[in-house]
Amino acid sequence: xxxxxxxxxxxxxxxxxxxxxxxxxxxxxxxxxxxxxxxxxxxxxxxxxxxxxxxxxxxxxxxxxxxxxxxxxxxxxxxxxxxxxxxxxxxxxxxxxxxxxxxxxxxxxxxxxxxxxxxxxxxxxxxxxxxxxxxxxxxxxxxxxxxxxxxxxxxxxxxxxxxxxxxxxxxxxxxxxxxxxxxxxxxxxxxxxxxxxxxxxxxxxxxxxxxxxxxxxxxxxxxxxxxxxxxxxxxxxxxxxxxxxxxxxxxxxxxxxxxxxxxxxx
Length: 266
What we know:
Structural class: alpha+beta
Largest sheet: 6 strands, antiparallel, barrel
Protein name: Flavin-nucleotide-binding protein
CATH superfamily: Electron Transport, Fmn-binding Protein, Chain A
CATH class: Mainly Beta
Number of helices: 7
Pfam families: Pyridox_ox_2
Number of domains: 1
Radius of gyration: 22 Å
Protein backbone atom coordinates (compact mmCIF):
# COMPACT_ATOMS: atom_id res chain seq x y z
CA UNK A 1 0.00 0.00 0.00
CA UNK A 2 1.39 3.41 -1.02
CA UNK A 3 2.06 6.28 1.31
CA UNK A 4 -0.84 8.70 1.86
CA UNK A 5 -0.65 12.01 0.03
CA UNK A 6 -0.43 15.04 2.30
CA UNK A 7 -0.81 18.79 1.98
CA UNK A 8 2.43 20.75 2.35
CA UNK A 9 2.97 22.46 5.70
CA UNK A 10 2.94 26.22 5.26
CA UNK A 11 2.58 29.08 7.69
CA UNK A 12 -1.14 29.28 6.92
CA UNK A 13 -2.00 25.66 7.78
CA UNK A 14 0.63 24.40 10.24
CA UNK A 15 -0.99 23.48 13.56
CA UNK A 16 0.52 24.65 16.83
CA UNK A 17 -2.01 23.43 19.40
CA UNK A 18 -3.07 19.81 19.99
CA UNK A 19 -0.84 18.65 17.15
CA UNK A 20 -1.63 15.01 17.96
CA UNK A 21 -5.19 15.59 16.73
CA UNK A 22 -4.08 17.10 13.46
CA UNK A 23 -3.72 15.61 10.01
CA UNK A 24 -2.45 16.83 6.68
CA UNK A 25 -3.57 13.67 4.84
CA UNK A 26 -5.73 14.41 1.82
CA UNK A 27 -8.16 11.53 2.43
CA UNK A 28 -9.44 12.48 5.91
CA UNK A 29 -9.50 16.19 5.07
CA UNK A 30 -11.48 15.72 1.85
CA UNK A 31 -13.87 13.34 3.63
CA UNK A 32 -14.64 15.96 6.28
CA UNK A 33 -15.30 18.58 3.60
CA UNK A 34 -17.47 16.34 1.41
CA UNK A 35 -19.64 15.17 4.32
CA UNK A 36 -20.31 18.70 5.58
CA UNK A 37 -23.73 20.05 4.51
CA UNK A 38 -22.42 23.62 4.68
CA UNK A 39 -18.97 25.04 3.97
CA UNK A 40 -17.96 28.43 5.29
CA UNK A 41 -15.94 30.33 2.70
CA UNK A 42 -14.02 33.44 3.70
CA UNK A 43 -12.37 36.02 1.48
CA UNK A 44 -11.24 39.65 1.49
CA UNK A 45 -14.10 41.76 0.10
CA UNK A 46 -11.94 44.78 -0.82
CA UNK A 47 -8.68 46.49 0.18
CA UNK A 48 -10.73 49.22 1.91
CA UNK A 49 -12.82 46.83 4.04
CA UNK A 50 -11.00 45.67 7.19
CA UNK A 51 -13.43 42.83 7.85
CA UNK A 52 -13.19 39.46 6.06
CA UNK A 53 -16.39 38.23 4.46
CA UNK A 54 -17.69 34.74 5.28
CA UNK A 55 -20.36 32.96 3.27
CA UNK A 56 -22.15 29.66 3.93
CA UNK A 57 -21.98 27.70 0.67
CA UNK A 58 -22.43 24.18 -0.58
CA UNK A 59 -19.60 22.44 -2.36
CA UNK A 60 -17.68 19.25 -3.01
CA UNK A 61 -14.16 18.07 -3.63
CA UNK A 62 -13.68 16.50 -7.03
CA UNK A 63 -11.61 16.35 -10.20
CA UNK A 64 -13.12 17.09 -13.58
CA UNK A 65 -9.93 16.15 -15.40
CA UNK A 66 -9.58 12.89 -13.44
CA UNK A 67 -13.16 11.88 -12.46
CA UNK A 68 -12.07 8.49 -11.10
CA UNK A 69 -9.91 10.16 -8.45
CA UNK A 70 -10.55 9.12 -4.86
CA UNK A 71 -10.69 11.24 -1.72
CA UNK A 72 -7.00 10.62 -1.13
CA UNK A 73 -6.01 12.15 -4.46
CA UNK A 74 -5.38 15.83 -5.28
CA UNK A 75 -8.79 17.43 -5.81
CA UNK A 76 -10.34 20.83 -6.47
CA UNK A 77 -13.19 22.26 -4.42
CA UNK A 78 -16.27 23.22 -6.44
CA UNK A 79 -18.63 25.78 -4.87
CA UNK A 80 -22.17 26.56 -6.02
CA UNK A 81 -23.47 30.12 -6.03
CA UNK A 82 -25.53 32.85 -7.70
CA UNK A 83 -24.08 34.64 -10.69
CA UNK A 84 -24.16 38.17 -9.20
CA UNK A 85 -23.06 37.39 -5.64
CA UNK A 86 -20.08 39.33 -4.29
CA UNK A 87 -17.72 36.37 -4.22
CA UNK A 88 -18.53 35.52 -7.82
CA UNK A 89 -17.94 39.09 -8.95
CA UNK A 90 -14.61 39.22 -7.12
CA UNK A 91 -13.52 35.90 -8.60
CA UNK A 92 -14.57 37.11 -12.04
CA UNK A 93 -12.51 40.28 -11.67
CA UNK A 94 -9.49 38.61 -10.09
CA UNK A 95 -6.22 38.50 -11.93
CA UNK A 96 -3.50 35.87 -11.93
CA UNK A 97 -4.22 32.71 -9.95
CA UNK A 98 -7.70 33.75 -8.84
CA UNK A 99 -9.44 34.96 -5.68
CA UNK A 100 -7.73 33.78 -2.46
CA UNK A 101 -10.27 31.97 -0.27
CA UNK A 102 -10.36 29.91 2.89
CA UNK A 103 -12.83 27.01 3.18
CA UNK A 104 -13.82 25.57 6.56
CA UNK A 105 -15.91 22.51 7.47
CA UNK A 106 -16.86 21.28 10.94
CA UNK A 107 -18.79 18.33 12.41
CA UNK A 108 -19.69 18.03 16.09
CA UNK A 109 -19.82 14.36 17.14
CA UNK A 110 -20.21 14.57 20.90
CA UNK A 111 -20.44 16.76 23.99
CA UNK A 112 -17.62 16.05 26.44
CA UNK A 113 -19.00 16.69 29.95
CA UNK A 114 -16.15 16.77 32.45
CA UNK A 115 -15.64 17.44 36.14
CA UNK A 116 -14.65 21.05 35.61
CA UNK A 117 -15.85 23.66 33.09
CA UNK A 118 -12.32 24.06 31.77
CA UNK A 119 -12.13 20.38 30.75
CA UNK A 120 -15.38 20.37 28.77
CA UNK A 121 -14.95 19.86 25.05
CA UNK A 122 -16.46 18.39 21.88
CA UNK A 123 -15.73 15.32 19.87
CA UNK A 124 -15.36 16.90 16.46
CA UNK A 125 -13.93 16.78 12.97
CA UNK A 126 -12.78 19.95 11.27
CA UNK A 127 -10.92 20.86 8.10
CA UNK A 128 -9.53 24.06 6.63
CA UNK A 129 -8.43 24.56 3.03
CA UNK A 130 -6.71 27.49 1.33
CA UNK A 131 -6.80 28.05 -2.37
CA UNK A 132 -7.52 30.24 -5.37
CA UNK A 133 -11.04 30.49 -6.81
CA UNK A 134 -11.84 30.99 -10.47
CA UNK A 135 -15.12 30.75 -12.37
CA UNK A 136 -15.88 27.58 -14.29
CA UNK A 137 -16.61 28.74 -17.84
CA UNK A 138 -16.78 25.47 -19.79
CA UNK A 139 -20.35 24.15 -19.98
CA UNK A 140 -19.32 20.49 -19.72
CA UNK A 141 -17.33 21.08 -16.53
CA UNK A 142 -20.07 23.32 -15.12
CA UNK A 143 -22.77 20.67 -15.60
CA UNK A 144 -20.42 18.00 -14.19
CA UNK A 145 -19.87 20.10 -11.05
CA UNK A 146 -23.59 20.89 -10.69
CA UNK A 147 -24.38 17.19 -10.89
CA UNK A 148 -21.69 16.30 -8.34
CA UNK A 149 -22.93 18.93 -5.86
CA UNK A 150 -26.61 17.98 -6.34
CA UNK A 151 -25.90 14.29 -5.77
CA UNK A 152 -23.93 15.21 -2.64
CA UNK A 153 -27.19 16.51 -1.13
CA UNK A 154 -29.06 13.29 -1.92
CA UNK A 155 -27.38 10.57 -4.01
CA UNK A 156 -28.95 10.08 -7.47
CA UNK A 157 -31.04 13.25 -7.04
CA UNK A 158 -29.69 14.78 -10.27
CA UNK A 159 -30.92 11.79 -12.27
CA UNK A 160 -34.38 12.02 -10.66
CA UNK A 161 -35.03 15.65 -11.59
CA UNK A 162 -35.87 17.61 -14.71
CA UNK A 163 -32.52 17.82 -16.45
CA UNK A 164 -30.47 19.29 -18.00
CA UNK A 165 -30.82 22.83 -16.59
CA UNK A 166 -32.26 25.26 -19.12
CA UNK A 167 -30.48 28.34 -20.44
CA UNK A 168 -31.79 30.70 -17.76
CA UNK A 169 -30.73 28.31 -14.98
CA UNK A 170 -27.27 27.92 -16.44
CA UNK A 171 -26.85 31.70 -16.69
CA UNK A 172 -28.00 32.40 -13.14
CA UNK A 173 -25.83 29.70 -11.57
CA UNK A 174 -22.09 30.08 -11.19
CA UNK A 175 -19.60 27.44 -10.11
CA UNK A 176 -16.35 28.39 -8.43
CA UNK A 177 -13.41 26.05 -8.84
CA UNK A 178 -10.92 26.39 -6.02
CA UNK A 179 -7.40 25.15 -6.66
CA UNK A 180 -6.24 24.03 -3.23
CA UNK A 181 -2.69 24.96 -2.17
CA UNK A 182 -2.77 23.70 1.40
CA UNK A 183 -5.04 22.21 4.01
CA UNK A 184 -5.22 20.64 7.43
CA UNK A 185 -7.69 18.67 9.50
CA UNK A 186 -8.23 18.10 13.20
CA UNK A 187 -10.14 15.28 14.86
CA UNK A 188 -11.02 14.89 18.53
CA UNK A 189 -12.53 11.59 19.64
CA UNK A 190 -12.61 9.57 22.84
CA UNK A 191 -14.06 10.23 26.27
CA UNK A 192 -13.63 12.61 29.15
CA UNK A 193 -10.14 13.89 29.92
CA UNK A 194 -9.98 15.24 33.45
CA UNK A 195 -6.92 16.23 35.45
CA UNK A 196 -5.63 14.05 38.28
CA UNK A 197 -6.11 16.88 40.76
CA UNK A 198 -9.89 16.42 40.25
CA UNK A 199 -10.23 12.68 39.58
CA UNK A 200 -8.66 11.96 42.94
CA UNK A 201 -11.20 14.00 44.89
CA UNK A 202 -14.19 11.91 45.93
CA UNK A 203 -16.11 15.03 46.97
CA UNK A 204 -15.97 16.04 43.30
CA UNK A 205 -16.31 12.70 41.49
CA UNK A 206 -19.27 11.59 43.61
CA UNK A 207 -21.41 14.60 42.80
CA UNK A 208 -20.52 15.51 39.20
CA UNK A 209 -21.78 13.31 36.34
CA UNK A 210 -19.20 12.93 33.60
CA UNK A 211 -19.46 11.33 30.20
CA UNK A 212 -20.12 11.96 26.53
CA UNK A 213 -23.37 12.87 24.81
CA UNK A 214 -23.05 11.61 21.21
CA UNK A 215 -24.21 14.12 18.58
CA UNK A 216 -25.21 13.27 15.04
CA UNK A 217 -27.24 14.72 12.17
CA UNK A 218 -30.61 13.04 11.70
CA UNK A 219 -32.84 13.30 8.62
CA UNK A 220 -36.56 13.27 9.34
CA UNK A 221 -39.57 11.83 7.52
CA UNK A 222 -39.96 13.40 4.05
CA UNK A 223 -42.93 15.79 3.85
CA UNK A 224 -44.45 16.23 0.38
CA UNK A 225 -44.81 19.67 -1.12
CA UNK A 226 -48.38 20.93 -1.60
CA UNK A 227 -47.89 20.67 -5.38
CA UNK A 228 -46.28 17.22 -5.25
CA UNK A 229 -48.10 14.64 -7.40
CA UNK A 230 -45.88 11.61 -6.77
CA UNK A 231 -47.64 9.43 -4.20
CA UNK A 232 -44.69 7.44 -2.85
CA UNK A 233 -41.40 8.90 -1.66
CA UNK A 234 -38.78 7.64 -4.15
CA UNK A 235 -36.45 4.89 -3.01
CA UNK A 236 -33.33 6.97 -3.65
CA UNK A 237 -34.54 9.35 -0.91
CA UNK A 238 -35.78 6.81 1.65
CA UNK A 239 -32.71 4.60 1.33
CA UNK A 240 -30.39 7.58 1.72
CA UNK A 241 -32.20 8.74 4.87
CA UNK A 242 -31.99 5.30 6.46
CA UNK A 243 -28.35 4.79 5.52
CA UNK A 244 -27.21 8.28 6.51
CA UNK A 245 -29.01 8.24 9.86
CA UNK A 246 -27.51 4.89 10.80
CA UNK A 247 -24.04 5.91 9.63
CA UNK A 248 -24.09 9.24 11.43
CA UNK A 249 -25.22 7.72 14.71
CA UNK A 250 -22.72 4.89 14.50
CA UNK A 251 -19.86 7.31 13.91
CA UNK A 252 -20.83 9.50 16.88
CA UNK A 253 -21.11 6.49 19.19
CA UNK A 254 -17.90 4.89 17.94
CA UNK A 255 -16.05 8.19 18.40
CA UNK A 256 -16.60 7.92 22.15
CA UNK A 257 -14.62 4.65 22.15
CA UNK A 258 -16.61 3.36 25.12
CA UNK A 259 -18.52 0.11 24.37
CA UNK A 260 -22.26 0.66 24.61
CA UNK A 261 -25.10 -1.92 24.61
CA UNK A 262 -26.12 -2.79 21.07
CA UNK A 263 -29.72 -1.81 21.72
CA UNK A 264 -28.57 1.77 22.22
CA UNK A 265 -27.44 2.00 18.60
CA UNK A 266 -30.38 2.24 16.20
